[in-house]
Amino acid sequence: MPRLRPSIARSLAPAGLALVSAPAVAAAPTLQAAIGNPSDFHLSGSVRLRYETLDGQSRAGFAADDEQLAMRTIIAAEYHHKALRIGAELYDSRAWLAPPGSAISANDVNAFEFVQAYVGADLGASLGAGSDTKIKAGRMTLNLGSTRLVASDDYRNATNGYTGLRADVKAHGVAATLIYVLPQMRLPDDPAGVRSNKVAWDRESFDVQLWGSVVARPRAIAGATAELTYLHFHEVSSLGRPNRERQLDTYGGRLVRAPAPGHWDFEVEGYHQTGSIATTTAPGAARLPVAASFVRAGFGYAFANKAKLRLSLAYDYASGDGPGGHYARFDTLFGSRRADLAPAGIYNAIGRTNISSPEVRAEIAPDKRFDAFVGYRALWLAEPGDAFSTTGVRDASERSGRFAGHQVDMRLRYWLIPGALRGEVDAVWLAKGRFLSSAPNAPHAGDTHYLSVGLFATF
Question: pTM of the predicted model, to two decimals?
């Protein structure tokens, strides 16, 4: 595993401040109760301090070694009176220590940003007896379905925000979520602004739009919940922000039965993606039709023992681009990767595109304070001529083969103060295979080792 570098000493001041303040954070619920907040007003928050270190870089274009000290502070408030809800959530995401050639970006830094600022209404049975309707307008976070397409990413230091409209409707045993939103463009996104933790208001624009719906029915088949999803993503280039002007329709579904002690569980999810994309970001570039796909299938068994051991086997496939006159690289849109694939942060190498990968995993949660998992993945490219997953490593000649390597991923979490202060350790070992060792632009830095150590305080 990577060693802690001497530069971690420079982080002791902010880290010490966070640790010293932890007892005060833990005592915050009592203080809030003493103040006597009205029942229709809720105030909460959290602080997360995390150190990450990596050696043996697997992504093209970055330094062989990397490290980061990241801090994320969240303060949320909501006023709820009868049918009316008014809320706001402030994110302050900052990072330090990044050496030259670091992978630090706007995924890590988003200082003093109101990611949420909304007005909502609980309309109850306005659509008829047995129905329930809620609407929301403004800035918001979103977690839809499995969160593999649209998520408020929690592992990453800076999350995804969206501005627009959301409606949740339940009727006749069916739940539907409908959205029309403008994904927020995190700022600053220039290297100097990111490294200095510059405060810049995120922007939304009709140049980037997302709309669609997720419809779910519990206990539809064999006790499993069935979901149907349709999302349309629209983007056009703007002054100073050229892009490939993606016009994507993603549709598919999921069938999932949640884990339960002494029972088998399973999940099958698949999407097909159509539309069009420009060949380059140059104005007037030719367009290609899109035909891409993603499938995840898995099953597991949760033992009814003290350790609450669960063993599972899963397979993930996401298409890559290749010959054929169309664009076939699957776009995961705003999906989260930590739950299935690997950490984000400065590792961020394994994503839901151009990958074919089985995984075996063991999880335990013996009590409410402790949980852990360890997983092993074998990694192949779905298309040998395209870049592997999110590493940027590519061999257009296809001479480097398909096998990318072996990944061992683990996480440990423990509540030091139940409900108030939790510690977390994440570690990954990526033993590079032929492709990540011999592709023309592959970093020649040996196997990848990643370690993160964090504290998470809530109030």
Answer: 0.89
pLDDT in tens, 281-316: 999 899 999 999 999 999 999 999 999 999 999 999
User: Has residue 434 been placed in a domain?
Assistant: yes
Measuring CA to CA, which residue among 317, 297, 332, 292 is closest to residue 402? 317
Domain extent, residue 95, equals 6-458
> According to the 3-state scheme, what is the secondary structure of 220-271?
EECCEEEEEEEEEEEECCECCECCCCCEEEEEEEEEEECCCCCEEEEEEEEE
Q: Which positions ≥6 away from 309 have C-beta within 8 Å? A: 302, 303, 362, 363, 364
What is the pLDDT, as a whole number, of residue 22? 38
DSSP letter assigned to residue 185: B
On whether residue 152 sits in a domain, the answer given is yes
Cβ–Cβ under 8 Å, residues 379 and 357: yes
DSSP string of 313-327?
EEEEEE----SSSSB
How many structural domains compose the chain? 1
Measured distance CA(382)–CA(402) in Å, rounded: 7
Largest Cα–Cα distance of the chain, in whole Å? 68
Instruction: Check which CATH number belongs to the domain holding 67 and give it.
Output: 2.40.160.100
By C-alpha distance, which of 90, 96, 83 is closest to 51? Answer: 96
**pLDDT averaged over the chain?**
92
1 part of a folded domain: no
Kind and range of the H or E element at 75?
A: strand 66-81
The dihedral region occupied by 173, where left means phi > 0, alpha psi between -120 and 50, and beta the remainder, is left
Tokens of 452: 């993160």
Alpha-carbon distance of 245 to 236, in angstroms, equals 5
What is the four-CA torsion angle of 446, 452, 453, 459, rounded to 10 degrees? 180
CB contact at 8 A, 256 and 267: yes
Quick check: is 236 in a domain?
A: yes
